[in-house]
Amino acid sequence: MARNRSSRMGCPNCGATAHIRTSRALSNKSRELYFQCTDPDCEAVFKGVLEVVSIVGDSKLPVEARMGDLLRPADRRKAPDENQTDMFAQPAPSG
């Protein structure tokens, strides 16, 4: 089975190719990846994080079927809740 070229990167120690050996979900938008260097003289093991930072192409899924609106474009986000307390609001002076 051929390896996916996107599942490797350069080793930070020697520059040789490092492959992803395993990963674990941190959230539905990020994963922690564990890499191993393929150079037998190095064999470093290191980890990195893969994270979705923005949506650049809209999904064909209906809005109701999507996993959340955290990364949707701002024009699709819900209107602000008028009852939500503003954490930066200054309390009214007493007296």
UniProtKB/TrEMBL annotation:
Residues 67-81 have a biased composition (Basic and acidic residues). Residues 11-55 form the Zinc finger Ogr/Delta-type domain. This is Ogr/Delta-like zinc finger family protein. Residues 67-95 are annotated as: Disordered.
